């Protein structure tokens, strides 16, 4: 008998038919992957199954009981757990305290919130953290965790409710390939041990085809195909609708083909990678006994391949989260019309570097020169007004505003280069030409957009600020392969139009397709820099610094 039976599920938002008659089943102990392009209706389906949205039509049965339209709280009591595309945790609480809060809610003790709960079921909370390999992170605040660790913590919070049905919306986003596989293998083990049904969405094909028992493919709100991984692997409709054709002018495809039967899925993602903030107390740097690192770019003394005239020049940058020293003397430079890729393992300091440049950290030292002006120490809004655009990994679009209204929030005056040459200003029409998907939804609310569409909107809104330099944090993370292709084309076009771009990225194929040079970070320090072409051809460097063969 199936634990979950969904029949004829439908949901529309005005004239947008997000989900159109979807039916599916999940048995106890089974993992069903729901995949499809961004905007296919996957997250909307999850919202209806999790109680965040009420279906317009259709029926949802949980172990034979009709739960259609029940609230999230009611569903949680019936044994439905949920993780979200963007992780939902208490940022100021430690990992252990977050789990204790979940246990309090599950036990119905939240109404006594004024009483101290520091010791409430602490051993049980620690045991749950141990299950996902986060024992050493228990005492750390969520705001200091790498994004991949936050995603693992969110799984723990869901498991604290002892669910019979677990809904996981992109559970491995922000995690490296090895971490993704390990997390989903653990999920499979728990599902079998607990007889728990798992329905998950995912853009990582190694996870989907390696871990799912069955796969359902959605396109434009409808179920396109359903079956075993072997059946879906051979479906040409899935290839056309979801994977796309790769980069049009790069040797490596950003969207590798589906793995053949029996083949270990290949990945160009960084081992140990992930988004988020680095470990606040790094051990001694791994390069302490290694071969000498090439000289870093210095103003007026750039090595071969580095920019001769830097628009953004960062020297000896240090940064802290509270008392934790995160960045240790990071230096980099990028010129107009150049893309510099920041790469490195999980917690290396990539996102922290971008935030420090953008003025988003309370404590930094070092020199940041932009457009011939020292901007270190400036507040974030002043740096943005000077022409430095920042696109966060979390996107942070306004969910209750339309696409056009989101774009208007970023509008700034046209700019000129330091020599007085005016720069063609970004307008709504220019942005729609860069991101054609947005042209089709000018009045759609941000909350009703897919993850890939939100990513495009986040970049477009930043461009409305007329930046001269652009800081992009993980633009290819958590979006469908065909959307990643479009993002790569957009980055190359921005490069041709003269923007200086610093890109934090885990996907080496994506970085190779757009970047001129690479700077590798390890534990908050620069350990390697080179032309991108040289780095890609240097298997020893890739293996040493990224764990990529």
Q: DSSP strand (E) fraction? A: 15-25%
Q: Please give the share of residues in helix.
A: 25-40%
Radius of gyration: 23 Å
Structural class: alpha/beta
Care to count the β-strands? 20
Number of helices: 19
Provide keyphrases for this structure.
31% helix; 19 helices; alpha/beta; 549 residues; 20 strands; six-stranded mixed β-sheet
Structure, explained:
With 549 residues, this protein is α/β, with parallel strands linked by helices. The protein is 31% helix and 22% strand. It is built from 19 helices and 20 strands. The protein has a 6-stranded mixed beta sheet with strand order 6-7-8-3-9-10, with helices on both faces. A 6-stranded mixed beta sheet has the order 16-17-18-13-19-20, with helices on both faces. Helix 3 packs parallel to helix 5 (147-159), helix 6 runs parallel beside helix 7 (205-211) and helix 12 (403-409) runs parallel beside helix 15 (451-463). It is globular and about 70 Å long.
What's this entry about, in short?
The protein contains 19 helices and 20 strands. It is α/β, with parallel strands linked by helices and 549 residues long. Helix 12 packs parallel to helix 15.
């Amino acid at each position: 008998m199936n634990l979950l039976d969904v029949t004829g599920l439908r949901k529309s938002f005005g004239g947008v038919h997000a989900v159109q008659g979807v039916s599916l089943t999940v048995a106890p102990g089974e993992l069903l992957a729901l995949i499809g392009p961004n905007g296919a209706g996957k997250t909307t389906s999850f919202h209806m199954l999790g109680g965040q949205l009420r279906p317009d039509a259709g029926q949802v049965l949980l172990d034979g009981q009709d739960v259609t339209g029940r609230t999230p709280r009611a569903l949680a009591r019936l044994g439905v757990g949920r993780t979200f595309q963007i992780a939902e945790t208490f940022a100021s609480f430690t990992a252990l305290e977050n789990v204790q809060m979940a246990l309090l809610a599950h036990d119905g003790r939240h109404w006594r919130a004024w009483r101290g709960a520091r010791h409430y079921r602490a051993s049980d909370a620690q045991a749950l953290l141990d299950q996902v390999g986060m024992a050493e992170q228990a005492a750390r605040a969520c705001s200091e965790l790498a994004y991949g660790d936050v995603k693992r913590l969110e799984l723990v919070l869901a498991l604290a409710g002892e669910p019979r049905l677990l809904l996981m919306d992109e559970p491995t986003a922000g995690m490296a390939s090895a971490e993704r596989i390990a997390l989903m293998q653990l999920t499979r083990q728990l599902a079998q041990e607990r007889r728990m049904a798992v329905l998950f969405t995912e853009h990582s094909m190694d996870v989907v085809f390696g871990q799912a028992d069955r796969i359902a493919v959605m396109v434009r709100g409808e179920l396109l195909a359903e079956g075993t991984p072997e059946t879906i692997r051979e479906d040409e409709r899935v290839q056309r609708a979801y994977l796309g054709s790769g980069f049009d002018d790069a040797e490596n495809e950003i969207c590798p083909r589906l793995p053949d039967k029996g083949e270990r899925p290949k990945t160009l993602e960084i081992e140990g990678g992930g988004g988020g903030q680095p470990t606040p107390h790094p051990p001694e740097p791994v390069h302490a006994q290694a071969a000498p690192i090439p000289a870093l770019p210095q103003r007026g003394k750039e090595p071969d391949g580095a920019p001769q005239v830097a628009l953004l020049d960062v020297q000896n940058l240090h940064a802290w989260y509270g008392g934790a020293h995160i960045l240790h003397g990071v230096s980099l430079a990028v010129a107009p019309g150049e893309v510099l890729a920041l790469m490195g393992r999980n917690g290396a300091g990539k996102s922290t570097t971008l935030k420090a440049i953008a003025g988003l950290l309370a404590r930094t030292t070092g020199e940041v020169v932009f457009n011939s002006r020292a901007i270190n120490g400036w507040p974030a809004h002043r740096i943005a007004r000077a022409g430095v655009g920042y696109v966060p990994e979390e996107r942070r679009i306004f969910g209750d505003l339309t696409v056009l209204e989101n774009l208007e929030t970023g509008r700034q005056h046209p700019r000129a280069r330091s020599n007085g040459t005016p720069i063609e200003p970004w307008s709504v029409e220019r942005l729609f030409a860069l991101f054609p998907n947005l042209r089709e939804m000018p009045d759609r609310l941000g909350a009703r957009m897919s993850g890939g569409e939100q990513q495009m909107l986040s970049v477009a809104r930043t461009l409305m600020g007329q930046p001269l330099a652009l800081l992009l944090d993980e633009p290819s993370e958590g979006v469908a392969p065909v959307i990643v292709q479009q993002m790569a084309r957009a980055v190359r076009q921005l490069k041709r139009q003269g923007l200086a771009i610093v890109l934090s990225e885990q996907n080496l194929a994506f970085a190779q397709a757009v970047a001129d040079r690479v700077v590798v970070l390890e534990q908050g320090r620069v350990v390697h820099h080179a032309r991108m072409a040289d780095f890609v051809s240097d298997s020893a460097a890739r293996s040493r610094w990224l764990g990529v063969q």
